[in-house]
Amino acid sequence: PVGLVSVVAEITDSGNSVRRGQISLRVRKYAEVVVTVSAVKLRESLSPDQFTIQLMEVTSLREQPVTSLGAIIGSRTKRNLAVGRILTTEAIETAPDIEVGREVAITFTGHSFTVTTRGLAMQTGRVGETIRVRNAVSGKTIFARVTGANEVTTEL
After folding, report:
1. Fewer C-beta within 10 Å: the chain N or C terminus?
2. Per-residue pLDDT tens for 105-142?
3. CA atoms of 142 and 109, how far apart (whole Å)
4. What is each CA distance from 125 to 27, 75, 77, 105, in whole angstroms?
């Protein structure tokens, strides 16, 4: 149990009860967790030098704390983080392979050909997801599957 806990205590002398009463204790939980050593901005890519491992009180922490610096590799923040804050799994996400507004390579594949052109991402996406992209040459918006960092493919 954590938080405020009440227990009954009894003082005895040679097996005879001398005094009995209730004692309230505040039980706190501590854990080795990842803590910010510098401010981290929204959607910023994370690197281990922005954090340290520290023993912190986590009694009232409502989110799952990150306990390893290795867990942040390839991640970015979902919100701003101040110095000295415990990093939680809910505050980070895997960085997308494509960001809205970024230039992408669009590969069109057919039965016996492949054509590549430039485009603009209209949605954020990760490998395997289908997103909207605008063809820079034709100006048309199409749906394409994310195949890598800033790369999408669609079949004709």
Report:
1. N
2. 999 999 899 999 999 999 999 999 999 999 999 999 99
3. 14
4. 44, 14, 16, 14
SS3 state of residue 2: coil
Placement of tokens 């990842």 in the chain: 34
The full DSSP string for 10-58 is: EEEETTEEEEEEEEEEEE--EEEEEEESS-B-TTPBP-GGGEEEEEEE-
Res 17: pLDDT: 86
For the whole model, what pTM was predicted?
Answer: 0.70
Which residue reads 């491992």 in tokens? 53
- How many other C-beta atoms are found inside a 10 Å radius of the C-beta of residue 98? 26
The angle at the Cα of 37, spanning 39 to 52, to the nearest 5 degrees, equals 140
CA distance 125 to 139: 20
Between CA 11 and CA 23 the distance in angstroms is 12
Nearest 5°: the CA angle 71, 77, 82 is: 105
In the structure encoding, which two tokens stand for residue 70, read together? 């290795």
Question: Which residues in the chain land under pLDDT 50?
Answer: none
Paired strand residues for 120: 103, 134
